[in-house]
Structure prediction request, 736 residues.
Amino acid sequence: FFYIRKEFTMMSKVALMAVLAVGGASAFVPTTGFLPKARMATSATSSLGLRTAGRTGSASLKMQVAAGQDTAALTRVATEARGLAMDSIAAAKSGHLGLPLGCAEIGAVLFSDFLQYNPKDPQWINRDRFVLSGGHGSMFLYSWLHIAGYDIPMDEVKNFRQYHSMTPGHPEFPNSEHNTPGIEATTGPLGQGVVNAAGIAAAQKMEQAMFNTKDHEIFDSVTVALCGDGCLQEGISHEGACFAAHEGLDNLIIVYDSNDVTLDKMAEYTQSEDTAARYEAYGWEVVTIDGHDLGAIKKTMDDFRTAKNGKPKLLIAKTIIGKGIDEVAGTNAAHGEAGVAYVEDAKEKLGLKEPWEVSSDTRDFFKGVTTSKTEAYNKWQDTFKAWKGANKDLAKKLDTFVKGEVPSAEEMFKGIPEFDQDKDLATREAGSVIINPVADLVPQFLSGSADLHGSNKNYIKTGGNFGRGFDKTYTGKNFYFGIREHAMGAIMNGIAFHGMFRPSGATFLVFVCYMRATMRVAALAEIPTTYILTHDSIGVGEDGPTHQPVETVSSLRVFPNLDVMRPADPEETVGAYVHSAQRKDGPTALILTRQNVRTLKEIPVKTRREGTLKGGYIAHKEKGDLKLVILAAGSELQWAMDAAKEIGEGVRVVSMPCMSIFDKQDQKYRDEVLPPSCRNRMAMEAGVASPWYKYVGLDGKVVSVEKFGFSAPGDIVMKEFGMTAENCLKEAKAMM
Prediction:
């Protein structure tokens, strides 16, 4: 091996190309950006018997040759995968060449040998999950899925990044817009994918603990994610790595494409940490290899699969970004499209003569791969059949989980007792009661919190705790995420991507800003996550403006496909929880109060529960001619009801717990609730006003909070901002 410390001046680049010409696939560039210039990476034996990064001593890596590899065939396949990426990115005049070219050997080992999958049954429940965390390198994934026999025709490979293609710019989890087989997660925002993978691995641990028996092991899959420097620089990767190690997710393998490059500069310009040492400190197994050495990749990955040592695995694969296009290889120019100008010459040097060339030899080779994987799949089917015969109750439960079946809303309402109608209760307290029958009715419903179970009130009392050690097991339904909101969101997404469980997670509403990026992905990917967000307004009081959400609810409402539900009392909270537990095409945010609210017994329980499922409903019907409509949500509905009672005739009150759901109702229902004939409308909410104007219009008024709060008891803060029945009455009378 040539272990090169390089500065990417033109002179060093020329020297590197000379080395590559001599050393071929065995010449590689290590991640020197992790270490100060005066120090070199070193090697030390890991507990798996391979070479791992250390901190002192010589700089050498030892090739590991795995038995049974057809190196010539794999080399050819890797070359042709590079060619597919080159041609598709060149045709699109858009995309990222660096990762698909730099990681071709990794792809060859994963899809020809390591990964457990069946391309004809891409939803096989015991498949390994592969997540491309560096989603910008999507042609890596599309090329390998096509070669491996997934239903991605060559025309779709050629149609990369085009309108309505199966091969969008970044991988998209199957949804209403795309249904590309083999995509396990929507990725692109760097760092999220590696933490999605931790969530998937957690779900795999859970399914193994729930369904494997002493006589039949039906689940033994692992999760593999491929990432680069960008993913590991993002702080979320730290949060997720800590969680994965602490909970013993030894079925999680991260392959780190360590190529010394970020988009703007060489990696050493912005990073100098020893990543191997960092992950070892977390409690990971870390091994460093040449990422172009087929034998070393196979040996390490195989050892990772069998090492049930309670440690997640990090494979640092030292690669050359853009390998195959000499003019840009090993430089930050290789990251994107700069290499397109050299594609034709590069392909000629690689021996690729046709556009999008996949040789008959490669097709034949992967026919053999498919045959081998189908044999393993069929053997598993025999085991699965025997397991079902011996475990009829478990089999029924598994079938329910796989199909995502949940009871009807009517059945769930019957299973959740009515609240004491004479008792004031915070909606978070109501949630603490509701979540338990919900978890009984929907056994795949999970909960978790970012170190705030006691405040969020979202603990499933009979669920047990998830993880390793203490009182935790892998069948536990309560996740302790630690103070890691960003990771919590991505882990939840991973659990939802896995497909068998329905995750929920909780924090204070004001801290949702730490996890917004993951909520956006959940909405885009149309996965059924639930966010339990308490302490919902200036009513938080004494903690002051840092903890009093003002803009937050309104900012969440602008997300497409995120149902933001702010229930007004315990019975509306029942409706909100039922909606979240039933929804299958996107996430739901439950916005709950810290302070007590009045239970609105003047509105029938059935009306409150069912009205919430429609997003909005008539809470108080006017007597006589309609003169004014007051809309409100959450804790402000009680004040609107009080004001309407005081005014008497002509006033209608509309509860609007969820705007997005209401907006999806048919026009007839919306007009029944908000008659177009009455433009005299007022809305009231303890937050920023902007979303309400689509209902009140230019002629209407919104009683809102347009600045940050202050530290004082919550009732005083509410009064100072006009969130009272008295002020609602005053503003309403002024409009009549």
Remarks:
- The chain has a mean pLDDT of 92.
